[in-house]
Structure formats: C-alpha cells, structure tokens
Amino acid sequence: MCKGGGAxxxxxxxxxxxxxxxxxxxLFCSFVCGAVASDExxxxxxxxxxxxxxxxxxxxxxxxxxxxxxxxxxDTLLSWTRDEIYLCETANGGAKxxxxxxxxxxxxxxxxxxRIDDGKYLADEKGAELHFDxxxxxxxxxxxxxxxxxxQTLDLLALADPNRDARRDVVxxxxxxxxxxxxxxxxxxxxxxxxxxxKKAIFVAVATINxxxxxxxxxxxxxxxxxxxxxxxxxxDLQRAANSQNADVAKSAEAAIKSINGYLSAVxxxxxxxxxxxLGSILLVVALGLAITFGLMxxxxxxxxxxxxxGAYTCYFVESVFGTGFTFRIVMPFSIGGHAxxxxxxxPGLHASGWFYETYFLFxxxxxxxxxxxxxxxLERTVIQFLYRRPLESLLATWGVSLILQxxxxxxxxxxxxxVNSPRWLLGNFTLNDVILGxxxxxxxxxxxLIVIGTWLLLTKTPLGLxxxxxxxxxxxxxxxxxxxxxxxxxxxxxxSGLAGLAGAFLSQIGNVGPSLGQSYIxxxxxxxxxxxxxxxVGCIYSALGIGTADQVLxxxxxxxxxxxxxxxxxxxxxxQWKPSGLFAARSRSLEG
Amino acid sequence: xxxxxxKLNQVASLGRAISTTTLMKxxxxxxxxxxxAAFTLNAAPVLHAEDTVKVGxxxxxxxxxxxxxxxxxxxxLYTFDEINKSGGVMGKKIEPVIVDGASNWxxxxxxAKQLLEEDKVACVFGCWTSVSRKSVLPVFEKDNGLLxxxxxxxxxxxxxxxxxxxxxxxxxxxxxxxxxxxxxxxxFYLIGTDYVYPxxxxxxxxxxxxxxxxxxxxIGGGLxxxxxxxxxSAGKYTPFGHTDYQQIVSDIKEFAASGDACVINTINGDSxxxxxxxxxxxxxxxxxxxxxSFSLAEDELRALPTKDLVGELGCWTxxxxxxxxxxxxxxxxxxxxxxxxxxxxxxxxxxxxxxxMVLSYDGVYxxxxxxxxAGSFDVDKVRTALESGEINFAGPGGxxxxxxxxxxxxxxxxxxxLANGQFKILKTFPxxxxxxxxxxxxxxxxxxxxxxx
Lengths: 593, 453
Fold this sequence. Notes:
The complex is a heterodimer.
Chain A: H1 2-52, H2 55-65, H3 71-81, E1 85-88, E2 97-101, E3 111-115, E4 131-132, E5 138-139, H4 144-158, H5 164-177, H6 183-192, H7 196-211, H8 216-229, H9 235-242, H10 247-296, H11 304-322, E6 325-331, E7 342-348, H12 354-358, H13 360-382, H14 391-413, E8 429-432, E9 435-438, H15 439-461, H16 463-473, H17 475-480, H18 485-510, H19 519-532, H20 537-558, H21 561-578, H22 589-592
Helix pairs in contact in A: 1-2, 2-4, 3-4, 5-7, 6-7, 7-8, 8-10, 9-10, 10-15, 10-18, 10-19, 10-20, 11-13, 11-14, 11-18, 13-18, 15-16, 16-18, 19-20, 20-21
Chain B: H1 6-18, H2 22-30, H3 32-42, E1 52-59, H4 66-85, E2 93-100, H5 105-118, E3 123-126, H6 130-142, E4 147-149, E5 162-164, H7 173-182, E6 187-193, H8 196-211, E7 219-220, E8 223-225, E9 231-234, E10 236-238, H9 246-256, E11 261-266, H10 272-281, E12 291-293, H11 298-301, E13 313-316, H12 325-340, H13 355-374, H14 379-387, E14 392-395, E15 398-402, E16 408-417, E17 423-433, H15 439-452
Parallel strand pairs in B: 1-2, 1-3, 3-4, 4-5, 6-7, 6-10, 6-11, 11-12, 12-13
Antiparallel strand pairs in B: 8-9, 13-16, 14-15, 15-16, 16-17
C-alpha cells in the first residue's frame, strides 16, 4: 500500500511539475508572439500611413521606413514600385483600404486581396473573403517623385540584404548617383560589412560620390583613391573627370585611367589563362575516354560522342528522380486503327528539396560512369569485338551505332533539349582581384585532375592496368602469355566509355543536353587525341590544355570566337604537317601493324 | 516527355512520294503499317470541291526547324477546325494542303510552286526562317500567290504577295530598347548568332541607340566597318550551336562594371543555355545588368533551364500569360482541341503557346475577313481588301489591324521571365504600327542630327 501511495504521490508531483512547465512555456510563447505581433502591427500601420499620406509627409514617412528592415516593408515597397498596390473602396463603407493581390488566382483569374494593415484577407461585412480582378481595382497613384522615393527606401533596405551580390549592386547604384546624402549610410554599412567584395564596392562608392564634389582637391583625392582601389567600374567616371576644365584634376584622372588600364590588362591576362585552362579541362575530360579507346586500342569509335550523351542524360535522369519524377513514353511511328501503339514507364520523384536535392549531382557522377561503361560494354560485345583488325569497318559500324543511339535518345527523352538544373554549389563565382573564377569552372578543373590521376593509377598501379598495357603493346604476345585478351579489350573499352560518361555528367552542368550533344564534341575529342599523339595519355593532357589556352588567347586577340577557332584549326593543320604523329609519338606494335 | 515526330513525317512524305508508282504501291502494301501512317496523314476530310477552299500550310515538318515549325502546323489545323465549325469562309470549308519544307530552303520554293500551280490553293500560311521566306518569294510573285508570314523578322522587305503578321523590328527590338532607356540604362551590349536577323536588327539598334543619345562607345560588342568607314555590322556574333561563352561574358562583365548596362540578346537556339549559365556564373544579375532576348518565347523556354533566366526580359506581341478574355478563351479552346484531336504527330502534353503561333492564328482570321470583305478568293481582290486598312481582328494578343504596308498594328509587351517558363508582363506599348523599312529613315535622321550639332 505504502509503496503504491508513494508512486501515486510521485506521479502527482510529476504531473504538477509538467503543468507548471507547460504553463510557463505557454506564457513565454504568448509573450513572444505578442511582441512580434505588436512589432508587426506597428510596421503595418506605418506602411498604411505612408501609402495614404501625400506630399512631404509621405516622403518623411518613407525615409523612416528605411530603418525598419522587415520583410513586409521590403515586399510591400517592391509591389509599390511595380504598381501592384491597389486601393479598395468597395468594402467597409467607402474607406480606402490598401491591398495586395495574391499570386494564386481562381478559375476566373481573380485573386484574394491581402490587407496591408493587418495581413488578413479582405472580407465583406459577413466575413466572406472577396475576390478581385486586378483590372477592377484602382492602382495607387504614384508619380515620378514618389516612385523614386520608394525606390530609394528600397535601395537603403537592400544594403542589409543577405545576398552579397544584391548588396554590391545597390552600393554601386548609390555611388553612381553621386548624392552626398548617402555617405553616412554607406559609412555605417562599412562598419557592419563582412564581405570583402562589398567592402571594396563601398570604398569605390564613397570615392565616386566624392568625385562629384565641387572642390578640386576633394576630386583629386577621390581620383587617387579610385586608382588605388583599381576600380574598373569607375573608368567611365574618370574619363569624364579627365575631360574637366581643371588641369590638375584632368592630369590626375589620366594617370588614374592609365594605372587602372594596366591593372585591367593584367586581369584579362590571368582571366584568359584561367578560361583557357578550364576549356582545356573540358577538352581533356571529353577526350580522355577516346585517348583510351582510340589511342590505346586503335578503334575509331564514332559513337564516343553518344557515350558522352549517355552520361549527360543519366545526370538528367537522376535530377528528375530527385525532383518531380521521370516519365517516358515511346510511341510507334505508325497508327493502328487511329491509335499509335506504344509503351512507357513512370518513375516517381523523390521531391527532394534543400541540401538533399543539391547532392543529386554526387549520385549522378558515378551512375553516369556506370551507365556509359555498360553501354560501352554492350557495344564492344555486339559490334566492336568483330572488327579489331578492320579499323575502317569499325568506323562505319560505330557511326551507325551513333545514329541509332541518337534516335533512341529522341524516342526516350524527346527531340528537344532537356533542362538540367545545376546544384547551387556549382553556381556563382569566386572573384580574385576582379578575375572571375566560376565555381563550375573550378569544379571542371578539379574534376579533370581527379580523372587523370584515377586513370594513371588504374593503368600503372593495378593488375588490370598491367594487362591493358600488355595487350595494347602486343596483343598476340600477351595472348601467348595467357592473358585473356578479349576480356581485357572488353574492360578497357568499357572503361574508356565510362570516362566519356563522366564527361557527359559534367557537360550537363555547363551546356545543352540533347540528342545531338555528342556530335558537337566528337570532332574536338579526335582533334585533341590526334594532336597529343595517338596512344599517349600524357600527350592528350598537353594537347587539351594547349588547344584550350590557344583558343581563348586567340579569341581575346582577334575579338571574335570564330576567327579564334579558325586560327587554332589552321595551327593544328600546320602542326600535324610538321609532326604527323602528334606531340608525343607512341611506338607500339599494335599501331604499326 | 516531349515526343517529336520528325521521323513519322519523313516516313509519311516518303510514302507520299513513292505512292505514285504502282510498283511502289505494291511494295507499300506489304508494309501495311507504313501505308497506314502515310494515308492517315493524307486523309484530310475530302468534301465536294465546291464546298471547300484549299489553303496551303508550308512549314518544315522534318529536319532541324521541325521542332519550332510543327507547332505552327498544329495551330493552323486548329484554326481551320475552329473556322470550319463556325461555317467556314464564305460558306466554304477550309481544306488544308500540308507540305513539308523539310528545313531545306530550295525545297521550300518547290513546295510553294506545287501548292500554287498544282493544288491551286487560295492562300498559304508558312515559313519560319528568313531564308525560307526569301526562297519562296519569287515563286509567290511569279504565280501571284498569297503568303502569310508569322515569325519576328528583320524587315527591309516588302512583297506585294506576302503579308507579314510577324513582329517587325519596331514592334520588338526598338520598344525593348525604349523600355530599357526609360529604366535608366545607358550602356547596351549587342550579341547574337551570326545570320541575317541578328545582324540587321543590331545594325538598326546601333543607329536607333545613337539617335536616342547613346554614344558609340556605350554600345558594346564591337563594330565592323567597310573601306569607307561606314559601320556595316555592330555587336558580337557567334556561330549556330556555339558553346563556349566564357570570353564574351567576361567582356560583358567588364563592360557592365560601370553600371547602368544591359545586354540585347539575339542568340538563336540552344546556344542560349551555355550563354545564360555563364551569365549566372559571372554574377551578372537582372538587377544590375538585365538581358533582353528576342528569340526566346514560351515554346523555347520549355527546353531551357528557366532557373537561370528568372528576371531576364523578353519582348513580344503576345504572351501566354496575358489576362484578356480573348486570350483566356483562346487557350481554353486550344487545350480542348488538343485533348480531342487525333491528327497524327500532334503532341498533346506540355504544350506552350507563343507569339509565332498566335500570329499564325491571327493571320488566318485576317485572311478570312479580307475574303469576306472582297467577296472573293481572288488574290488581287483579297490583297486590295487587306491593304484597305479596315481588316482587323481581336486576337489573343489584342487587336491586330493589317495596314497598307502589309504589316500589322498591334500591342507590344515587355515581360520578365518567371521560373515556370512564363512571362510576367511589365509594360504594354499599345497599337504599335509595324514598319518594314527602318534603316534608311534612321540614317537620314542621324545625318540630320549630326548636321544640327
């Protein structure tokens, strides 16, 4: 009994404690909510006041709103600049109620109106929500002066935007206006700013505003400051200063232009080198697979481009599965009784979002390799294994296979290009002294390095690599030594195709994914392999980077991508006249035979 | 998934070509499936000759242009159905004669000849590329035919046998520039694919911008001059299918560094994907440096990663997102037709409607009204009616009126791209009069302006 009573007591005690805790929690919650709510109400009231007032009072209220960095203010003002604030006079006995219309529309194209004063839907006396067509309502009258005041408030709010690009844009805009009134705001922001790029933009903006000063000595100080900051964006302003009446100002502006132009050519030089390396990396990634199937094995594989496309489509497939799902339907190109027979399948999507969705590419990369390798394996077993000693026939047969594969892509994925959304971590850039290093470009360079290292490890450090090299050097001798050459051939070809698949996965992030994707890269691939020297992977690396850099440099020199490319091709023709076997001539019996 | 039927059409046209010889007919009969496809395609409703009027559809249903032009065949078939259901043209039902230009420009001329001389059609709706139009032009002039051309083009052409429902340069490019100038843009970078439409449009814009006070050094992309120093080409050009835009985008970035810059994009086709990916990677945002594109409509956006394009601008005389009652009922009826129609090769899923399609639709109605005004199908009488300036049609994009200069008066809209591939309409220029010849007038105005200074 006693024991039982103790238990009861304890449980009673627990229950009371729990209740107290709960009550405290509730109280705390309501307190927080109340605080938030009252803050929001005040803001909303301010907004409504600003909307309904006029003249100088309106300007004053608007400038006060710039201190209130809440989402409601931002969204409402943005709608204001777009003329999306409406005044409703129908409800509530003719009083003007500022409202926004909801994005979501009903079947008649009407939408619910959101009251700006309390954030609730506008309702009639009985409490039923009202629906409006935007053309039925009166837009808030906004003249040019008011519009610029609203825009100014928005700009000041944007200074605290979480996105650094948005902050940088608005800082630049404030600077360009050359209005002294922004100086304190910009200085205040400088104290809080953490991003180096935005900080530099603020310095430039302050100097640009000072450039508009009437005093020549202040002008010269600003010019020197801009020169010190190497501000490329100020060249136009400096040019204007260089044309000024004051000789001292003109002189220092010219000196500043000269120094910035010098900096600019350095930026262009390094930028071109970087772009050259990135283009070279793409060529390398695309050609490496071919360097193995064509270079080492001696098969002229015209379907190499389609192996790339398989990789790219695999990436699309994985992205679709992570997103909304993948559906395909193959319809026969004829109809029986008015209906075209066909079949199809639907793979439901995971509807992933956030970081999980962003990782799709990490799953897509290995899968691209596997899919392309499997396709290569099938191609080798069904076609190529019969044509090892007949290179010309292999050219024709693989050309046929490439056409068949292209048509398959059309049937399954459609003749149009498909959309592949890049994961967020591949977007954006890293700017180093005005040289833009795009994340996707940095990624391709790293990707190329990894693939080259992987291939090198496979060929030199694994038993399979040893067998591959043996078979490639002398197939008959290797066979005599007991190597199963057919099997090695099969695996080598699959590996080469898999590398092409990896290239495709990457290409899906920077360009189009469509049935003719492979066609646009096949010529470049062969060019890279031939220039590098057939049968030599190191040569392939040199030639890819060489062609890539030459292309970008010549494009920069001639100012036209076409002339640049033509010059590169002419150089390659001349080079091959001089060294027909490429940069690094490989000596292998399989090629000579 | 979007399934295109180029092969089907190839099979069909093959079937039609060889079905003339009896030997081949025997051959075909053994492949019943192929014949079936061929015959379903030819099986337009055969009515008594007096009750029908033959109208030609001349588009590429195979080859590279099929992706775009098949949509125009579909909308034309729909329009004919709609007219036939409401009593036809002057009591006669429209009987479509569909021929395939196969993205082959000389073939377009041959097919036009076939339509005019053998089928004796009253009118032809067709062509997409300027080169196909130039190829059929002499045929239409020789045989005195009537062609309605629906796709935005560069102007500088006026044939008495062609009516251009298409956007002229002053109904797309110059309103877009007006809009950007009003937004306070001061620097304009011109970039396009290297062929006649972008070259001519950019040359017009180059002069137009100068006329509006934009100095030459603020027009980016480079200039090409002839021996006498006259500018013959303005802007940066890349070939069809170009993929590497690194250098050009870094050039744009430098150009835009001083602020208030924008890009005028006449790149055609899928080169837009690497271009916009590069623009996004370089941190050029629509807020700091917007891109306005003249070749990207709703139909093209379906195949582009729209995420990279949100906020970028477009300018057309029709947007699918227009809220007019005409547009709403048009879209509803078109979707109903898609559901019920079993015409081979008409894709039913994920269809978008865009400006060239609506301008094809408008063209048919303008022709119908002109025929009714003229009281005859005779080409000369219909032309006189069309040139009278009284023929107009309240289409999905707003009222369209045919003018004496064979171009139309219609609304022009500026829109910004949304993530769902539609446009949000930012500005409307009401009733803009299409004008084909702009270069000469601009040259004269520029001369006057320099003389005045």
